[in-house]
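The instructor's notes for this session suggest beginning with a concrete chain rather than abstract definitions. Hand out the sequence below and ask the class to guess, before any prediction is shown, which regions might be ordered.
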Amino acid sequence: MKKAIVCGAGIGGMVSAIYLSQKGYEVEIFEKNSKPGGKMSELRRDGYRFDTGPSLITLPEILDNFFKDIGRDMKDYFELIELESSAKYFWNDGTVFNSFINESKLNEELDEVFGEKEKDNFFRFLKYGRLFYDLSEDNFLKNEFKIRNYITREGLKNFTKFISGRSMNDVSNKFFKNAKLKQLLDRFATYNGSSPFLAPQFFSIIPYVEYEFGAWFVKGGIYEIANALEKVCSEMNIGINYGHKLIDFETANKKITGLIFEGEKRSSTMKKILTF
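After discussion, reveal the predicted structure:
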C-alpha cells in the first residue's frame, strides 16, 4: 500500500488526508499543536466556549459535497443553522448596523443607517464583487486552476482585473463616502488575517458571497467541524500525531525515508516509528 504523510491537522490537512485515504493510501498526519483545526480553534474558560477562528460558514454545499464524496452524511457530524444576520456592528457614536442577509431587510437597514445614496452604492459594490465571482467560479473556485484558461483575448482581459494592484480599501473608497461603511466592507479582508490596504480587490468576492448566498453557524460552535473531521480520520484509520512540529525530512533514491521534528535528533529511531 502506498503511504502518505500530511503535515498539519488543520482543515485542509485533514481533508487532504481523508481524500488520500479514500484513494487507497495509508495516511499519517503530524500536527505541532495538541488538537486539530489549525486556524479553526476554540477557547474554553470559566464555563464558556469561544470560537477563535472562522466566525461563520458560507457556501455550505462545499462541506455537504465533501461528506457526500466520502460516502457520509454531513448531518451525522454537525448541524448548520442559517443566520438571519451575519453580524451586528457597533460604533462609539452609538451607530448600530444589523447586517441582514435577507435583501429586503438589508435594504431597509442600509437606508435607515447610511441613507439612500450609500445604500445604492452598497448594492453596486456587491455587483462589482459578483464580477470576480463569475470570473472565478469555473476557473478555480470549483475546479483546478489552469493558466491556459486565461490564455485567450477575453481571458487575458479579465485576468488583468486580478492583478490590477487595486486594494480592497481602494474599492471601498471608490464606492463609498461614509467612513463607517468603508470600514464595514474593509473588514472582510480580515477574514483570513489580511489587511484591506494590502489585500487585492479580488477580496470583494467575500462580501458578495456572504450576502448573495447566505451565512450559517454550526450548532455548538464552528469548532465542531474540526471535531467532525478528526472523527472521520479516526473512522478511516488515519493516525494524527499531535505535538510533532515537522521541520525537515530525509530522502534516499527520491523517496522520503525519515521525518525530522523540532527537538528531535536525526536518527534511525524515527524511521522505525514511521515504518517506512
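Then share the key points. The first helix runs from residue 11 to 22. The chain is about 40% helix and 20% strand.
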